[in-house]
User: Which sequence fits this backbone?
């Protein structure tokens, strides 16, 4: 039993480690493409292409999983083409994530950067709360402490002192806080909702991915048209694309698939811890590659992130069974 638990723990740690490294590599590569001297590409088209590649990869993996062309076609016919309710169910995360991204942009436009950085990290405890409410799980007091410690650590790692500017920007703090609250709730709900759908049935993970990415492509195409439609008509869909941009898209695609595996076999809270570790790693890589300066707040934030990951991963003791054992031993002593 203990050996089985150890294997499961090692598998989860392996999944999280790979996800962390991939997320860090993606962040560094993305930073390079956005700071190089090349013409900037349209990020909305890159997101759309990423969804298409994730869909194609999921279809390929499902074909290999089914083992034959006949079973593959039957699976697509039954779970995709013949299941409009399931497609609608998996469109929820895509729509909610779209709302989240727009609300985050609205909040950033109406709040100071420092306030935005702090409040947006509330998505971490919000995800934990959604996990408790939607999946009927319990977290120990130590795990709750580690969640809020992670929230503080990520805030410090990403902290950038406010800089004075002569440009006066009209902001609506009330609108900003309302938008950030919606973004935080959307982040927690969408992730846990997808986890619940994955774990509430025996449907293949890759079928679920196909269902979600189909709706994701539609949502991102709408975003492309609304955000950059006029410029894309003028310059072209693939304007500014280089080998580095395609590499970033590849990392985002594979990372997205791997994230679904992590959610399937661990949970969204652990995914949040992995994302925090990726932020730390990508920042350290930026120090070596881009000359970024390490600050005291970054060092303190990194320490908090590491400690919180350790605390959350500690095994939870069943105090009830310990107490029962102690009671039984006391009764034997009294009997003697």
Assistant:
């Amino acid at each position: 039993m203990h050996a089985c638990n150890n294997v499961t723990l090692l598998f989860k740690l392996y999944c999280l480690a790979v996800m962390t490294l991939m997320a860090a590599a993606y962040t560094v590569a993305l930073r390079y493409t956005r700071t190089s001297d090349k013409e900037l590409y349209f990020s909305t088209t890159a997101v759309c292409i990423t969804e298409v590649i994730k869909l194609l990869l999921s279809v390929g993996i499902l074909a290999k999983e089914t083992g034959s062309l006949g079973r593959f076609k039957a699976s697509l016919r039954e779970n995709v083409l013949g299941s409009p309710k399931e497609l609608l169910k998996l469109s929820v995360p895509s729509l909610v994530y779209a709302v989240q991204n727009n609300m985050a942009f609205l909040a950033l436009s109406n709040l100071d950067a420092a306030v935005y950085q702090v409040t947006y990290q509330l998505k971490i405890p919000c995800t934990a709360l959604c996990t408790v409410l939607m999946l009927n799980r319990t977290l120990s007091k130590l795990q709750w402490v580690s969640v809020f410690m992670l929230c503080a650590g990520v805030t410090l790692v990403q902290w950038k002192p406010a800089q004075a500017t002569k440009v006066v920007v009209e902001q609506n703090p009330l609108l900003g806080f309302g938008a950030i609250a919606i973004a935080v709730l959307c982040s927690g709900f969408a992730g846990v909702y997808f986890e619940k759908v994955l774990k509430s049935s025996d449907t293949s993970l890759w079928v679920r991915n196909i269902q979600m990415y189909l709706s994701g492509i539609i949502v991102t195409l709408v975003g492309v048209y609304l955000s950059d439609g006029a410029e894309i008509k003028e310059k072209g869909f693939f304007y500014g694309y280089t080998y580095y941009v395609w590499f970033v898209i590849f990392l985002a695609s594979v990372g997205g698939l791997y994230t679904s595996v992590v959610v399937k076999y661990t949970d969204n809270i652990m995914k949040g811890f992995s994302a925090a570790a990726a932020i730390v790693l990508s920042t350290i890589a930026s120090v070596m590659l881009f000359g970024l300066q390490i600050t005291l707040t970054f060092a303190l934030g990194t320490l908090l992130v590491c400690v919180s990951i350790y605390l959350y991963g500690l095994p939870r003791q069943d105090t009830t069974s310990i107490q029962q054992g102690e009671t039984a031993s006391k009764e034997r002593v009294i009997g003697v």
